[in-house]
Amino acid sequence: MKILVTGGLGFIGSHTVVELQKEGYEVVIIDNCSNASEEVLEGITAITGKRPLFEKMDLRDKADVISFFDRHSDVAGVIHFAASKAVGESVEKPLLYYENNLTTLVYLLQQLTQKKKAHFIFSSSCTVYGQADEMPITENAPVKPAESPYGNTKQIGEEIIRDTCRVCPQLQAISLRYFNPMGAHPSAEIGELPLGVPQNLVPFITQTGIGLREQLSVFGDDYPTEDGTCIRDYIHVVDLARAHVVALKRLMDGKNEENYEVFNVGTGTGSSVMEVIHSFERVSGTKLNYKVVGRRAGDITQAYADTSLANRVLGWKAESTLDDAMRSAWKWEQKIRS
Ligand code: WQD
């Protein structure tokens, strides 16, 4: 069974390629390397002993997408990660995000719906919920008006897939709404490689810990939470990768009741910024240099998942603790800076 992983050189994509190969799938990666390096192929191969097929390609080129599916007519499933994902950048460059995240999705679905059967996993995000009214967040929580073009592309992306599945029964799809991915493969052969100054909390923490950054700014401690800092559901990237394999198997084994399903993928536990900092200090044995500053525009107070649907229906549950994930993130940071 050949599986296409778009964005397969990226953070979550590369970890998912490893888990797919471990399950015996043949993997072909499409990546335009705009936010990832071909070096990642070596890391994947070092872990699994199998080098995935790789085609450097931009999904915005419709002719290339058509030609890819002509050449790889045996692709039985697609896991679609390739997208731009920087919230702040999306506010500055909305058209780049609408083109790169949505036009490419349409080109992929146009090819998949020409097959007798197609299985499609979409990389969505808890960002579709905005600040949900109730915690933990279930899949039935209302989708709120997006706070950024990035978040809007995830909402619109889900609607494009839903509307297509409604008229194309041959398309079987699942959207996975990620919470906050973090960490790295325990081998430290692959991990997160943020370009430039990290926007996300965990890579900024580990880069501060290793001395690459002077000090972590904690964006506000005046939120209505126990310690005043925002709460998120931090999930180990390997747990998240495994959820993709389980979801794909559900579709390929024909176990899905509907031809479009949505699942939250988190740990079900919320952690505050201070708790994440303390986790780093525990696993690294070092004090982190941080300073509380003003709130960051657009941040919500809290988001953590109700994962009972994925636990029950997918038979999937996150296994790693916050400290496990932080330990892997720190080991990775030390390795790439050594
Ligand atoms: C987490 C918490 C910050 C950096 C983003 C995207 C979301 C998804 C996951 C793609 C917040 C605080 C952060 C820092 C800080 N990505 N923080 N100092 O914003 O929850 O979600 O990544 O799907 O779409 O929005 O993650 O890691 O940026 O922030 O205090 O230097 O850490 O205020 O409370 P976020 P994050």
TrEMBL record:
| Keyword NAD set for record | yes
**Cofactor (UniProt):** NAD(+)
Q: Does the keyword NAD apply?
A: yes
Classification via SUPFAM superfamilies:
NAD(P)-binding Rossmann-fold domains (SSF51735)
Which Gene3D superfamilies does the record associate with it?
Answer: NAD(P)-binding Rossmann-like Domain, UDP-galactose 4-epimerase, domain 1
Which InterPro entries does the record match to this protein?
Answer: NAD(P)-bd_dom, NAD(P)-bd_dom_sf, UDP_G4E
User: What EC number(s) is this enzyme filed under?
Assistant: 5.1.3.2
Catalytic activity of the protein: UDP-alpha-D-glucose = UDP-alpha-D-galactose
Q: What does the UniProt keyword field contain?
A: Carbohydrate metabolism, Isomerase, NAD
| NAD(P)-binding domain residues | 4-327
Q: Read off the Pfam families from this record.
A: GDP_Man_Dehyd
Question: What pathway or pathways are given for this protein in its record?
Answer: Carbohydrate metabolism; galactose metabolism
Can you tell me which family this protein belongs to?
A: Belongs to the NAD(P)-dependent epimerase/dehydratase family.
Subunit structure of this chain's protein? Homodimer.
Q: What is this protein called?
A: UDP-glucose 4-epimerase
Query: What gene name is given for the protein in this entry?
Result: galE
